[in-house]
Design a protein that fits this description.
Shape: globular
Strand content: 5-15%
Distance between the termini: 50 Å
Order of helices and strands: HEEEHHEEEEHHHHEEEEHHHH
Largest sheet: 6 strands, antiparallel
Number of strands: 11
Number of helices: 11
Protein backbone atom coordinates (compact mmCIF):
# COMPACT_ATOMS: atom_id res chain seq x y z
CA UNK A 1 0.00 0.00 0.00
CA UNK A 2 2.57 2.59 1.11
CA UNK A 3 6.33 2.66 1.42
CA UNK A 4 6.20 3.01 5.21
CA UNK A 5 9.97 3.04 5.66
CA UNK A 6 10.19 6.04 3.38
CA UNK A 7 7.27 7.82 5.07
CA UNK A 8 8.55 7.49 8.64
CA UNK A 9 11.95 8.90 7.68
CA UNK A 10 10.16 12.27 7.74
CA UNK A 11 9.42 12.00 11.49
CA UNK A 12 11.47 12.33 14.67
CA UNK A 13 11.28 8.63 15.52
CA UNK A 14 13.88 6.69 17.46
CA UNK A 15 14.94 3.20 16.36
CA UNK A 16 14.50 1.05 13.29
CA UNK A 17 11.31 0.24 11.40
CA UNK A 18 9.85 -3.16 12.38
CA UNK A 19 6.27 -3.26 11.06
CA UNK A 20 3.23 -1.22 10.06
CA UNK A 21 -0.27 -2.70 9.74
CA UNK A 22 -3.86 -1.44 9.44
CA UNK A 23 -5.36 -0.59 12.80
CA UNK A 24 -8.79 0.27 14.23
CA UNK A 25 -12.16 0.83 12.59
CA UNK A 26 -12.02 4.50 11.60
CA UNK A 27 -13.54 5.49 8.26
CA UNK A 28 -12.19 9.02 7.74
CA UNK A 29 -8.42 8.65 7.93
CA UNK A 30 -6.30 5.58 7.19
CA UNK A 31 -4.82 4.38 10.48
CA UNK A 32 -1.84 2.08 11.02
CA UNK A 33 -0.03 0.59 13.99
CA UNK A 34 3.65 1.40 13.54
CA UNK A 35 6.23 -0.53 15.53
CA UNK A 36 9.83 0.64 15.90
CA UNK A 37 12.63 -1.28 17.60
CA UNK A 38 15.80 -0.14 19.33
CA UNK A 39 18.14 -2.28 21.40
CA UNK A 40 15.63 -5.11 21.36
CA UNK A 41 12.86 -2.87 22.78
CA UNK A 42 9.72 -2.33 20.71
CA UNK A 43 7.81 0.96 20.74
CA UNK A 44 4.37 1.41 19.15
CA UNK A 45 2.99 4.49 17.44
CA UNK A 46 -0.14 5.41 15.50
CA UNK A 47 0.54 6.49 11.92
CA UNK A 48 -2.31 8.10 10.00
CA UNK A 49 -2.80 9.26 6.45
CA UNK A 50 -4.99 12.35 6.82
CA UNK A 51 -8.07 12.60 4.61
CA UNK A 52 -7.35 15.82 2.73
CA UNK A 53 -10.48 15.36 0.61
CA UNK A 54 -12.53 16.14 3.71
CA UNK A 55 -10.02 18.39 5.50
CA UNK A 56 -8.95 20.91 2.88
CA UNK A 57 -6.50 22.79 5.11
CA UNK A 58 -4.40 20.09 6.75
CA UNK A 59 -1.94 22.71 8.01
CA UNK A 60 -4.72 24.51 9.91
CA UNK A 61 -6.25 21.24 11.12
CA UNK A 62 -2.92 20.09 12.51
CA UNK A 63 -2.25 23.46 14.12
CA UNK A 64 -5.53 22.99 16.05
CA UNK A 65 -4.37 19.58 17.22
CA UNK A 66 -0.91 20.88 18.10
CA UNK A 67 -2.38 23.70 20.22
CA UNK A 68 -4.85 21.43 22.02
CA UNK A 69 -2.45 18.56 22.72
CA UNK A 70 0.38 20.80 23.94
CA UNK A 71 -2.04 22.68 26.20
CA UNK A 72 -3.47 19.42 27.58
CA UNK A 73 -0.05 17.90 28.15
CA UNK A 74 1.07 20.88 30.23
CA UNK A 75 -2.13 20.78 32.30
CA UNK A 76 -1.84 17.02 32.87
CA UNK A 77 1.82 17.29 33.82
CA UNK A 78 1.07 20.13 36.25
CA UNK A 79 -1.44 17.97 38.12
CA UNK A 80 1.01 15.07 38.31
CA UNK A 81 -0.45 12.94 35.55
CA UNK A 82 1.17 11.09 32.65
CA UNK A 83 0.70 13.20 29.49
CA UNK A 84 1.94 10.39 27.22
CA UNK A 85 -0.99 8.28 28.38
CA UNK A 86 -3.70 10.82 29.25
CA UNK A 87 -3.54 12.87 26.07
CA UNK A 88 -2.95 12.39 22.39
CA UNK A 89 0.73 13.23 21.89
CA UNK A 90 2.18 14.16 18.51
CA UNK A 91 5.51 12.98 17.17
CA UNK A 92 6.76 15.92 15.12
CA UNK A 93 8.21 15.78 11.64
CA UNK A 94 11.91 16.51 11.19
CA UNK A 95 11.07 19.99 9.87
CA UNK A 96 9.27 20.76 13.15
CA UNK A 97 5.74 20.56 11.73
CA UNK A 98 3.05 18.38 13.36
CA UNK A 99 2.60 16.51 10.06
CA UNK A 100 4.53 15.57 6.94
CA UNK A 101 3.50 15.92 3.32
CA UNK A 102 4.94 13.28 1.01
CA UNK A 103 4.68 14.37 -2.62
CA UNK A 104 2.43 12.06 -4.61
CA UNK A 105 1.38 10.14 -1.49
CA UNK A 106 -0.34 12.51 0.91
CA UNK A 107 -0.36 14.00 4.39
CA UNK A 108 0.72 11.90 7.38
CA UNK A 109 0.95 12.33 11.15
CA UNK A 110 2.26 10.20 14.00
CA UNK A 111 0.96 9.89 17.57
CA UNK A 112 2.48 8.12 20.53
CA UNK A 113 0.56 4.90 21.18
CA UNK A 114 -1.68 4.97 24.26
CA UNK A 115 -0.85 1.68 25.93
CA UNK A 116 -3.04 -0.69 27.98
CA UNK A 117 -6.25 1.01 26.84
CA UNK A 118 -9.26 0.05 24.72
CA UNK A 119 -11.76 2.02 22.61
CA UNK A 120 -15.16 0.27 22.45
CA UNK A 121 -17.24 0.66 19.29
CA UNK A 122 -20.61 0.34 21.06
CA UNK A 123 -22.04 0.68 24.55
CA UNK A 124 -21.71 -2.90 25.83
CA UNK A 125 -22.62 -2.01 29.40
CA UNK A 126 -23.73 1.17 31.23
CA UNK A 127 -20.37 1.48 32.99
CA UNK A 128 -18.64 2.10 29.64
CA UNK A 129 -21.06 4.92 28.85
CA UNK A 130 -20.59 6.41 32.31
CA UNK A 131 -16.81 6.35 31.96
CA UNK A 132 -16.97 7.94 28.49
CA UNK A 133 -18.99 10.73 30.08
CA UNK A 134 -16.30 11.21 32.71
CA UNK A 135 -13.71 11.36 29.93
CA UNK A 136 -15.54 14.04 27.93
CA UNK A 137 -16.39 15.96 31.11
CA UNK A 138 -12.69 15.92 32.04
CA UNK A 139 -11.80 17.02 28.50
CA UNK A 140 -14.14 20.01 28.73
CA UNK A 141 -12.88 20.97 32.19
CA UNK A 142 -9.22 20.65 31.14
CA UNK A 143 -9.84 23.09 28.28
CA UNK A 144 -12.22 25.43 30.11
CA UNK A 145 -9.73 28.32 30.04
CA UNK A 146 -8.35 27.67 26.55
CA UNK A 147 -8.54 30.66 24.18
CA UNK A 148 -10.92 29.34 21.52
CA UNK A 149 -10.28 32.30 19.20
CA UNK A 150 -7.02 30.67 18.01
CA UNK A 151 -8.82 27.60 16.62
CA UNK A 152 -9.44 27.12 12.92
CA UNK A 153 -12.96 26.04 11.89
CA UNK A 154 -12.03 22.78 10.19
CA UNK A 155 -15.65 22.04 9.22
CA UNK A 156 -17.36 25.45 8.80
CA UNK A 157 -20.82 25.81 10.42
CA UNK A 158 -20.74 22.18 11.49
CA UNK A 159 -23.34 22.72 14.24
CA UNK A 160 -24.86 25.93 12.94
CA UNK A 161 -28.37 24.48 12.98
CA UNK A 162 -29.85 27.60 11.38
CA UNK A 163 -27.64 27.12 8.31
CA UNK A 164 -28.39 23.40 8.30
CA UNK A 165 -32.08 24.34 8.20
CA UNK A 166 -31.55 26.69 5.24
CA UNK A 167 -29.68 23.93 3.39
CA UNK A 168 -32.59 21.61 4.12
CA UNK A 169 -35.16 24.10 2.75
CA UNK A 170 -33.06 24.50 -0.41
CA UNK A 171 -32.95 20.72 -0.87
CA UNK A 172 -36.74 20.52 -0.51
CA UNK A 173 -37.27 23.36 -2.98
CA UNK A 174 -34.90 21.94 -5.61
CA UNK A 175 -36.01 18.31 -5.08
CA UNK A 176 -33.29 17.08 -7.46
CA UNK A 177 -34.25 13.41 -7.16
CA UNK A 178 -38.02 13.83 -7.11
CA UNK A 179 -38.19 12.36 -3.61
CA UNK A 180 -39.84 15.17 -1.65
CA UNK A 181 -43.42 13.98 -2.02
CA UNK A 182 -42.57 10.52 -0.65
CA UNK A 183 -41.03 12.01 2.52
CA UNK A 184 -43.57 14.78 3.15
CA UNK A 185 -44.14 13.66 6.75
CA UNK A 186 -40.42 13.90 7.53
CA UNK A 187 -40.18 17.33 5.87
CA UNK A 188 -43.05 18.60 8.00
CA UNK A 189 -41.42 17.11 11.11
CA UNK A 190 -38.39 19.34 10.51
CA UNK A 191 -40.43 22.45 9.71
CA UNK A 192 -42.59 22.07 12.84
CA UNK A 193 -39.44 22.30 14.96
CA UNK A 194 -37.84 25.26 13.18
CA UNK A 195 -37.62 27.15 16.48
CA UNK A 196 -35.07 24.61 17.78
CA UNK A 197 -32.50 25.79 15.24
CA UNK A 198 -31.55 29.16 16.70
CA UNK A 199 -31.62 28.46 20.42
CA UNK A 200 -27.98 27.49 21.08
CA UNK A 201 -26.59 29.47 18.13
CA UNK A 202 -28.14 32.68 19.47
CA UNK A 203 -27.00 32.05 23.05
CA UNK A 204 -23.44 31.72 21.74
CA UNK A 205 -23.74 34.82 19.54
CA UNK A 206 -25.03 36.94 22.42
CA UNK A 207 -22.35 35.71 24.81
CA UNK A 208 -24.95 34.40 27.28
CA UNK A 209 -23.46 30.94 26.74
CA UNK A 210 -19.66 30.63 26.73
CA UNK A 211 -17.94 29.56 23.54
CA UNK A 212 -15.86 26.49 24.37
CA UNK A 213 -13.45 24.04 22.84
CA UNK A 214 -15.75 21.31 21.58
CA UNK A 215 -14.77 17.85 20.37
CA UNK A 216 -17.72 17.44 17.98
CA UNK A 217 -17.47 13.65 17.70
CA UNK A 218 -18.21 12.49 21.24
CA UNK A 219 -18.84 8.82 20.52
CA UNK A 220 -17.75 6.07 22.87
CA UNK A 221 -15.09 4.90 20.39
CA UNK A 222 -13.25 8.21 20.78
CA UNK A 223 -12.47 7.46 24.42
CA UNK A 224 -9.66 5.17 25.54
CA UNK A 225 -10.59 3.19 28.66
CA UNK A 226 -8.06 1.40 30.84
CA UNK A 227 -8.09 -2.29 29.88
CA UNK A 228 -8.05 -3.41 33.53
CA UNK A 229 -9.95 -0.79 35.56
CA UNK A 230 -12.28 0.41 32.78
CA UNK A 231 -11.65 4.01 33.84
CA UNK A 232 -11.08 6.73 31.23
CA UNK A 233 -7.53 7.29 30.05
CA UNK A 234 -7.73 9.78 27.17
CA UNK A 235 -10.00 11.39 24.58
CA UNK A 236 -8.82 10.78 21.01
CA UNK A 237 -9.65 11.87 17.43
CA UNK A 238 -9.30 15.64 17.62
CA UNK A 239 -9.87 16.34 13.92
CA UNK A 240 -13.19 18.09 14.56
CA UNK A 241 -12.10 20.17 17.57
CA UNK A 242 -13.51 23.66 17.06
CA UNK A 243 -15.36 26.46 18.84
CA UNK A 244 -18.85 25.61 20.04
CA UNK A 245 -21.11 24.77 22.96
CA UNK A 246 -20.89 22.13 25.66
CA UNK A 247 -24.46 21.28 24.71
CA UNK A 248 -23.27 20.06 21.30
CA UNK A 249 -20.81 17.55 22.75
CA UNK A 250 -23.11 16.41 25.54
CA UNK A 251 -26.08 16.17 23.17
CA UNK A 252 -24.26 14.16 20.52
CA UNK A 253 -23.10 11.63 23.11
CA UNK A 254 -26.72 11.14 24.19
CA UNK A 255 -27.90 10.86 20.59
CA UNK A 256 -25.30 8.17 19.91
CA UNK A 257 -25.37 6.23 23.17
CA UNK A 258 -28.90 6.27 24.62
CA UNK A 259 -30.37 3.96 22.02
CA UNK A 260 -29.67 0.27 21.46
CA UNK A 261 -30.50 0.04 17.74
CA UNK A 262 -27.96 0.36 14.94
CA UNK A 263 -27.94 3.62 13.01
CA UNK A 264 -30.44 3.33 10.19
CA UNK A 265 -32.52 0.56 11.79
CA UNK A 266 -35.68 0.46 9.63
CA UNK A 267 -37.81 -1.19 12.35
CA UNK A 268 -38.66 1.79 14.56
CA UNK A 269 -40.12 -0.48 17.26
CA UNK A 270 -36.47 -1.31 18.06
CA UNK A 271 -35.55 2.38 18.41
CA UNK A 272 -36.10 3.78 21.89
CA UNK A 273 -34.51 6.49 24.01
CA UNK A 274 -33.04 4.90 27.15
CA UNK A 275 -33.53 7.28 30.08
CA UNK A 276 -31.39 5.10 32.38
CA UNK A 277 -28.41 5.47 30.05
CA UNK A 278 -29.10 9.20 29.97
CA UNK A 279 -28.91 9.20 33.75
CA UNK A 280 -25.58 7.31 33.70
CA UNK A 281 -24.03 9.70 31.20
CA UNK A 282 -25.30 12.83 32.93
CA UNK A 283 -24.02 11.65 36.30
CA UNK A 284 -20.56 10.93 34.88
CA UNK A 285 -20.32 14.11 32.81
CA UNK A 286 -21.40 16.51 35.54
CA UNK A 287 -19.25 14.81 38.18
CA UNK A 288 -16.20 15.37 35.96
CA UNK A 289 -16.84 18.87 34.69
CA UNK A 290 -17.63 20.16 38.17
CA UNK A 291 -18.12 23.88 38.71
CA UNK A 292 -16.64 24.86 35.35
CA UNK A 293 -20.11 24.49 33.82
CA UNK A 294 -22.31 27.60 33.81
CA UNK A 295 -25.97 27.91 34.74
CA UNK A 296 -27.08 28.58 31.15
CA UNK A 297 -25.21 25.49 29.96
CA UNK A 298 -26.89 23.35 32.62
CA UNK A 299 -30.30 24.71 31.62
CA UNK A 300 -29.71 23.64 28.00
CA UNK A 301 -27.92 20.29 28.41
CA UNK A 302 -31.04 18.15 28.04
CA UNK A 303 -32.28 20.26 25.12
CA UNK A 304 -28.85 19.79 23.53
CA UNK A 305 -29.62 16.08 23.16
CA UNK A 306 -32.84 16.87 21.30
CA UNK A 307 -31.13 19.50 19.14
CA UNK A 308 -28.24 17.26 18.07
CA UNK A 309 -30.60 14.39 17.22
CA UNK A 310 -32.93 16.72 15.30
CA UNK A 311 -29.98 18.27 13.44
CA UNK A 312 -28.54 14.86 12.56
CA UNK A 313 -31.89 13.64 11.23
CA UNK A 314 -32.28 16.83 9.21
CA UNK A 315 -28.82 16.28 7.68
CA UNK A 316 -29.71 12.70 6.70
CA UNK A 317 -32.97 13.93 5.16
CA UNK A 318 -31.19 16.72 3.27
CA UNK A 319 -28.71 14.23 1.87
CA UNK A 320 -31.53 11.87 0.84
CA UNK A 321 -33.28 14.71 -1.03
CA UNK A 322 -30.00 15.68 -2.74
CA UNK A 323 -29.25 12.14 -3.92
CA UNK A 324 -27.14 10.61 -1.13
CA UNK A 325 -23.97 12.52 -1.97
CA UNK A 326 -22.51 13.05 1.52
CA UNK A 327 -23.17 10.08 3.81
CA UNK A 328 -22.12 6.64 2.66
CA UNK A 329 -25.10 4.37 2.13
CA UNK A 330 -25.49 0.59 2.00
CA UNK A 331 -28.93 0.57 0.40
CA UNK A 332 -31.14 3.09 -1.46
CA UNK A 333 -33.32 3.76 1.62
CA UNK A 334 -30.41 4.04 4.07
CA UNK A 335 -30.53 7.81 4.56
CA UNK A 336 -34.30 7.99 4.97
CA UNK A 337 -34.14 5.07 7.41
CA UNK A 338 -31.50 7.00 9.35
CA UNK A 339 -33.74 10.08 9.26
CA UNK A 340 -36.74 8.23 10.65
CA UNK A 341 -34.64 6.66 13.37
CA UNK A 342 -33.34 10.06 14.52
CA UNK A 343 -36.81 11.57 14.45
CA UNK A 344 -38.18 8.67 16.51
CA UNK A 345 -35.49 9.46 19.11
CA UNK A 346 -36.40 13.16 18.97
CA UNK A 347 -40.04 12.29 19.69
CA UNK A 348 -39.03 10.05 22.59
CA UNK A 349 -36.71 12.74 24.01
CA UNK A 350 -39.38 15.43 23.74
CA UNK A 351 -41.69 13.30 25.87
CA UNK A 352 -38.88 12.61 28.34
CA UNK A 353 -37.57 16.20 28.51
CA UNK A 354 -39.04 17.05 31.96
CA UNK A 355 -37.43 13.90 33.42
CA UNK A 356 -34.15 14.63 31.60
CA UNK A 357 -34.05 18.15 33.07
CA UNK A 358 -34.83 16.74 36.50
CA UNK A 359 -31.85 14.35 36.20
CA UNK A 360 -29.56 17.23 35.16
CA UNK A 361 -30.67 19.23 38.20
CA UNK A 362 -30.20 16.22 40.47
CA UNK A 363 -26.56 15.75 39.50
Amino acid sequence: MYDFKSIIKNFQLDGEFLSCTRYGEGHINQTFLLTMIKGGKKTDYILQRINDNLFKRVDKLMENIRLITEYNRKKIQARGGNPDRESLSLVYAKDGKPYAFIDGVGYFRVYKFIFDAIAYQNVQKPEHFYQSAVAFGNFAKLLAEFDTSVLYESLPDFHNTEKRYQNFLRAVEEDKMGRAESVRAEIEFVKERKDYCGRIVNLLKSGEMPTRVTHNDTKLNNVMLDKDSGEPVAVIDLDTVMQGSLCYDFGDSIRFGCNHADEGEPDLTKVNFDIELFKEYTKGYLSAIGDSITEVEKQNLAFGAILMTYECGMRFLTDYLEGDTYFRIKRPSHNIDRTRMQFKLVTDMEKALPEMEKIVNEY
